[in-house]
UniProtKB/TrEMBL annotation:
Protein name listed in UniProt: Core domain-containing protein
Core domain span: 2-102
Naturally occurring in which organism (per UniProt): Bradyrhizobium manausense
Coiled-coil region list: none
GO cellular component terms, semicolon-separated: cytosol
Short name of one Pfam family: Fe-S_biosyn
GO biological process annotation, one example: iron-sulfur cluster assembly
Any one GO MF annotation of this record: 2 iron, 2 sulfur cluster binding
Superkingdom classification of source: Bacteria
Gene3D superfamilies cross-referenced by the UniProt entry: HesB-like domain (2.60.300.12)
Lineage: Bacteria, Pseudomonadati, Pseudomonadota, Alphaproteobacteria, Hyphomicrobiales
PANTHER family xrefs: IRON-SULFUR CLUSTER ASSEMBLY 1 HOMOLOG, MITOCHONDRIAL, IRON-SULFUR CLUSTER ASSEMBLY PROTEIN
Length: 113
């Protein structure tokens, strides 16, 4: 996983403004939504032994171990406009997305070797 400058800046802002100590953001994938899966983003107060730690542009992303194969090669961006502000995932493992943009269909990344 890698971050755009906008995503790194937003993560930095969020961790500095949090009410308690935050080590980074935890990113994962959960089942649900009309396309089958959705991305999750939450504050991480600690690094779990099973987390995949990604440090990019001065911030940490902790990838849930169940999501690693679904997020390989993904770029995390942050977009803000007049109507909404959100993290956006540019994921080569995404097969499709629902019309509302809230859920996606993902396939595990193929590992050569």
């Amino acid at each position: 996983m890698r971050l755009t400058d906008a995503a790194a800046q937003r993560i930095s802002e969020l961790t500095q403004r949090a009410d308690s100590e935050i080590v980074g953001l935890r990113v994962g994938v959960k089942n649900g939504g009309c396309a089958g899966q959705s991305y999750t983003v939450e504050y991480a107060h600690e690094i779990r032994p099973t987390d995949e730690v990604v440090e990019d542009k001065g911030v940490k992303i902790l990838v849930d171990p169940k999501a690693v194969l679904f997020l390989l090669g993904t770029e995390m961006d942050y977009k803000a406009d007049k109507m909404q502000a959100q993290f956006v995932f540019n994921n080569p493992n995404q097969i499709s997305a629902c019309g509302c943009g809230e859920s996606v269909e993902l396939r595990p990344a193929k590992i050569d070797g």
